[in-house]
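Incident log, support desk, overnight shift.

02:14 A customer reports that sequence design results differ from what the structure should imply. Their input is reproduced verbatim below. On-call engineer (initials T.W.) acknowledged and began investigating.
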């Protein structure tokens, strides 16, 4: 049990710092630690609670770039997607899901990092933003992965770092509030989770504030490198955690 508590604390500290720095990523970083030792539904509950706490802290410490008009399509799509993700969660093979998502991140993000000039997507308008928000909402319902696709999308849109962070941060905040409320209403938050929730929240507070403070001193180019690098490492962690299990099941067939 002591080793589990240590993993929970280390995961919360690392994920809190990353979220404070970038405005997203708590779920991906935390899951890279917790997926090894926690039951998937418990890990999802801890991730959503920790990510929500971090977004509340980060939202109070970094407010530049907020644009309600740009944010609204993402939020509307996300609100429609959350119930779908929550409904699918009990039936989903999380290892297969992480294998697919990890593969996407590992292939796409390094290609964007190595490109001399990132591609820019200007088409699709608000309809495309709604669809990306919908996908983010579904992934949020599955365990707090709300920021993955919207972050990639904002990067391809070419938003500056303050605008991108404001969109992702406030989108995640809205999605996580609804997701956490849905978890409460559907009974996914059990008594077993409460002691660990009481550990996660205080463990991540200081690292989140440190990450948010560091954010203000980095350049546009460095911010994009950090975001894409984090997404790549998260993809690697997902593959390492899920690939052996999925391949083992395929070998048994």
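02:41 Re-run completed on a clean worker. Output:
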């Amino acid at each position: 049990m002591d080793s589990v508590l240590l993993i929970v604390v280390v995961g919360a500290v690392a994920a809190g710092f990353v979220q404070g720095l970038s405005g997203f990523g708590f779920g991906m970083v935390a899951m890279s630690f917790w997926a090894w030792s926690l039951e998937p539904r418990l890990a999802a509950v801890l991730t959503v609670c920790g990510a929500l706490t971090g977004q509340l802290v980060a939202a109070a410490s970094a407010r530049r770039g907020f644009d309600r008009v740009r944010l609204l399509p993402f939020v509307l799509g996300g609100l429609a997607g959350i119930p779908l993700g929550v409904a699918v969660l009990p039936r989903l093979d999380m290892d297969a899901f992480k294998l697919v998502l990890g593969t996407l991140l590992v292939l796409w993000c390094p290609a964007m990092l190595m490109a001399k000039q990132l591609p820019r997507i200007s088409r699709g308008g608000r309809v495309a933003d709604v669809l990306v928000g919908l996908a983010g909402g579904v992934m949020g319902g599955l365990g707090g992965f709300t920021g993955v696709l919207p972050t990639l999308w904002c990067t391809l849109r070419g938003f500056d770092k303050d605008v991108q962070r404001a969109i992702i941060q406030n989108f995640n905040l809205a999605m996580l509030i609804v997701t956490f409320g849905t978890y409460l209403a559907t009974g996914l938050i059990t008594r077993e989770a409460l002691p660990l929730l009481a550990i996660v929240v205080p463990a991540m507070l200081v690292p989140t504030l440190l990450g948010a403070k560091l954010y203000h001193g980095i350049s546009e180019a460095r911010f994009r490198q950090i975001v894409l690098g984090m997404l790549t490492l998260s993809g690697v962690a997902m593959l390492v955690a899920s690939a052996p299990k999925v391949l083992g099941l395929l070998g048994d067939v």
